[in-house]
Predict the structure of Family 43 glycosylhydrolase.
Amino acid sequence: KIIACQLALCTLLISGSCFSQNPFITSIYTADPSAHVWADGRLYVYPSHDIDPARGCDLMDRYHVYSTDDMVTWRDEGEILNASQVAWGRKEGGFMWAPDCAYKNGTYYYYFPHPSDTKWNNSWKIGVATSKKPASDFTSAGYIKGLDSSSMIDPCVFIDTDGQAYFYYGGGSKCSGGKLKDNMIEIDGTLQKMEGLVDFHEATWVFKRNGIYYLTYADNHGRENQLRYATSNGPLGPWKYQGVFLGSTDCDTNHGSVVEYKGKWYIFYHNQQLSNTGQGNLRSICVDYVQFNEDGTIKLVEQTKT
Ligand code: FUB
């Protein structure tokens, strides 16, 4: 299915700006976008899927994936996983929250937070599904063992330039990270608290630019939620807090990923402009440019709205 963003194409022709309108997916509600560029040259976005009626993230029971090769025309790659395919998941389904995806040695690993019990908030696990393709044929491969089930949301997997994979997760006030074994499903050693973050709440994302490691995350101030970041000279910190780089999106949550594609840097995030519910749990994914200062610090993002 091709989602043709005609208005964006007009913008492209008139202004020369190679960019979508925001939100750039309007066929279903989407949130928590994790963006990656894979070897086929396309940029893939792995979001969670908000479902009407908005009741507080409980109905979220499936995931779609989107891809592009020009940042204007987006392809809905279809549904890649739903709760009924996760044997260890809670029998009522739902609560499939912010995912991430990684690629190693010919396999794509899809990480998703999901509870295993009716009492959902005490039974979070980080599930893993695998496929040989980036957006289809994923099958459940279990979950990561040995994590803290009370705050086990928002997985992020970062693969360093030497090929070592790092796993991060956390919700509430603690963000933890550590190495993944080559099988990408087991933690290698122990996870450690990410030190130096100020006002951490959730939505960890790690990337590297010019030898600097960046950890971005959301704080917790209701509709004033912002994305903050810290930098380090290593993937596990200690982190130096650097401030806010994405202001409020007028939504009860904030969640983003930063990625380079075809020589430009982008921030993917969500707002609730499309649903305008006033609650922030019918969200839609957006994208804007990220700009860096000479010293590597990030300029405040200008949010494009329709
Ligand atoms: O989408 C469900 C949850 O809302 C995510 O896991 C959090 O990061 C917040 O965006």
About this structure: The mean pLDDT is 92. Residues 31-32, 48, 57, 97-98, 153-154, 202-203, 253, 255 surround beta-L-arabinofuranose (CB under 6 Å). The chain is about 5% helix and 40% strand.
